[in-house]
Specification:
Blueprint (H helix, E strand, L loop, with lengths): L3 E9 L19 E2 L4 E9 L2 E8 L6 H15 L6 E5 L19 H21 L2 E11 L3 E3 L1 E3 L5 E3 L10 E8 L5 E8 L11 E2 L3 H13 L2 E6 L5 E3 L13 H19 L9 E11 L6 H10 L6 H18 L7 E11 L2 E5 L3 E2 L1 H10 L4 E5 L8 E2 L10 H8 L9 H16 L7
Parallel strand pairs: 2-12, 4-5, 11-13, 17-19, 18-20
Antiparallel strand pairs: 1-3, 1-6, 3-4, 6-10, 7-14, 8-9, 10-11, 15-16, 16-17
Helix pairs in contact: 1-2, 3-4, 5-6, 6-8, 7-9
Length: about 425
C-alpha cells in the first residue's frame, strides 16, 4: 500500500466587530472578540486520490454558497469537489453565512472578503505542506453533551436538558504523526451544539475552541473540531440548560470539561499505522409527502402574518412559498435528491450531511456499516435544517417544526430510515473493504 500524505494549514476568518451573530435572531450584533474564528484545512493524498476536509468555525453555510466554495476549491487545489468536505462547527457566536427568513440575511461582504479567501488560502497552503503520515485513533465517552429536548410541565418540548433522551457520548480523536514520531495534526469528532454562550455578543468559537486549543498545546499540533449529529444535543451546562443566556463564562466551563476528555482520549491512542485513503460522492434520495393544500397554507399565513423572527418568521415564509407554488405550476416530487461525500481514512469513514442530524441516526449508520467506523458530519457542504427521527415527530418542538417545514413538500414520516439506508449503501460503494472496525 502506498503511503498516506497529509498537509494541514489554518487561516483566521474573524469578522469585524458589529457583524450580526447568527443563530438566534437578526438583532444580535458583535460588540467584541472573545477568540478568533478559523478555517482549518486537512489535505489528504494517496497515489492519485486526493481529498480535502475543512473545519470552519461558523454556525451554518448556505447550500448555494457551499457549492460555490467547493467549485473554487477544485479550481484552487485540483482536488475534485466530490472529494471535498466543508464542515461548519456550529458556533452561534459567529457571522451569518447561512441567510434565511427569520434569522437575517447572509453577510455577503464578510463572505467575499474574509470567509471565502480564508478557506481557499488554507486549502492551498495545506496541499503545499503535505508529508507522509501514519494514523492513530481512539474513542472514549464524554458527557459534555446532553439531549436538549426537555419536557415542560405540560408535556411540551422545550430547550433544556433531558437526561433520558438520546445522545451519543462517544468522542473520537484521530491523530497523525510523521515518520519521526512528531504529531502533525489532530481531528476531534463529537456531536453537540455550539450554544454554551447563548445570545452572547462576543465573537467566539464557543466551547469547541477551548477544547481544540488545549489539545493543540498538549500535542504540539494543529487540532480541529468536526461536529457530528448534534440536532438534538446541546451543551450540558451547570445552569440546567443548553444555552448560557449570553454569559460567555459557560464557554470556558464546558470547554475545559471537553478538553479533559479530548486529552484523555488522545493519550489513549494505542499506536499509529499506515492508512488507506478513498473518497467519492453518491446521491441520496429522501422520500417526500405531497405539499399541504392551499387552504391549509392560507390558514398558516394568516396565523403568522407579520412575523419576521426565528421559527415564526420561517413558518410565514413557508406558507408564502407554498401558496406561490400553486400559482407557478410546481409539481409535487416523489423524493429529494442530495449529494453525499464519503472520505475513508484508515478504519474510519467521514460522511457528509447538509442537515443537523439527530444523534440516533448517526449511531444507527455506524452500527450498520461493519467495514469501517462511520463518523457522520452535520452541517457539511451546505445547510438544510434539522433531520429528526420518526419517533420524535409526535412530540413536536422546534427541531420537528424546522424538519417538517423547511421544504415545500415535507419529508415522509420514515425519512430517517431512507437516509440511513442510503448512507450505508453509499459508504459501502465508496469504501475500500480492507481492514475492519
Amino acid at each position: 500500500m502506498d503511503r498516506l500524505y497529509l498537509g494541514v494549514a489554518r487561516e483566521t476568518i474573524t469578522p469585524q466587530i458589529g457583524c450580526q451573530l447568527y443563530g438566534y435572531s437578526p438583532h444580535i450584533f458583535a460588540d467584541g472578540i472573545e477568540d478568533d474564528l478559523t478555517a482549518t484545512a486537512f489535505y489528504f493524498r494517496q497515489e492519485k486520490t486526493e481529498a480535502l476536509m475543512i473545519s470552519v468555525t461558523v454556525c451554518l453555510i448556505e447550500t448555494e454558497l457551499a457549492n460555490r466554495i467547493l467549485g473554487l476549491l477544485e479550481e484552487e487545489t485540483g482536488v475534485p469537489r466530490k472529494h471535498c468536505m466543508l464542515c461548519a462547527t456550529h458556533t452561534h457566536s459567529g457571522p451569518n453565512t447561512k441567510g434565511n427568513e427569520g434569522w437575517g440575511s447572509i453577510d455577503q461582504a464578510y463572505c467575499e472578503t474574509i470567509f471565502i479567501p480564508g478557506i481557499l488560502k488554507a486549502a492551498s497552503e495545506a496541499k503545499k505542506k503535505a508529508c507522509v503520515v501514519k494514523m492513530g485513533m481512539a474513542r472514549g465517552n464524554s458527557y459534555v453533551g446532553v439531549n436538549r429536548r426537555e419536557f415542560d410541565e405540560n408535556n411540551r418540548i422545550r430547550f433544556g436538558q433531558n437526561p433520558w433522551g438520546c445522545m451519543n457520548p462517544q468522542m473520537t480523536v484521530i491523530s497523525f504523526r510523521d515518520d519521526a514520531g512528531n504529531t502533525i495534526a489532530n481531528m476531534i469528532h463529537y456531536g453537540c451544539h455550539g450554544t454554551a454562550a447563548g445570545q452572547n455578543t462576543r465573537i467566539s468559537r464557543d466551547w469547541p475552541g477551548i477544547m481544540t486549543d488545549t489539545l493543540e498545546r498538549e500535542s504540539g499540533a494543529v487540532t480541529a473540531f468536526f461536529n457530528g449529529p448534534e440536532g438534538d444535543v446541546g451543551p450540558r451546562l451547570s445552569n440546567g440548560k443548553t444555552t448560557g443566556g449570553g454569559d460567555i463564562r459557560y464557554v470556558y466551563e464546558l470547554g475545559h470539561a471537553a478538553a479533559l476528555d479530548a486529552v484523555r482520549i488522545y493519550k489513549s491512542i494505542p499506536g499509529y499505522h499506515d492508512a488507506p485513503l478513498s473518497a467519492g460522492s453518491e446521491m441520496i434520495h429522501i422520500p417526500l409527502k405531497k405539499r399541504i393544500i392551499r387552504e391549509e397554507a392560507e390558514k398558516m399565513l394568516e396565523e403568522y402574518a407579520g412575523h419576521t423572527v426565528n421559527w415564526q418568521g420561517m413558518l410565514r415564509d413557508y406558507a408564502e412559498r407554498v401558496l406561490a407554488s400553486y400559482e407557478n405550476g410546481y409539481e409535487d416530487q416523489n423524493s429529494l435528491s442530495i449529494p453525499q461525500t464519503v472520505i475513508r481514512i484508515g478504519d474510519v469513514a467521514y460522511v457528509s450531511f447538509i442537515y443537523e442530524l439527530f444523534s440516533e441516526i448517526g449511531m444507527r449508520i455506524d452500527r450498520m456499516c461493519r467495514d469501517v467506523s462511520v463518523l457522520s458530519l452535520s452541517n457539511t457542504n451546505g445547510s438544510q435544517a434539522y433531520f429528526v427521527t420518526q419517533d420524535q415527530l409526535c412530540r413536536g418542538g422546534y427541531e420537528v417544526t424546522m424538519h417538517q417545514y423547511g421544504n415545500i413538500q415535507p419529508y415522509c414520516d420514515d425519512a430517517d430510515w431512507a437516509l440511513i439506508q442510503g448512507t450505508v449503501n453509499n459508504v459501502n460503494k465508496i469504501v475500500n473493504h480492507e481492514g475492519g472496525k
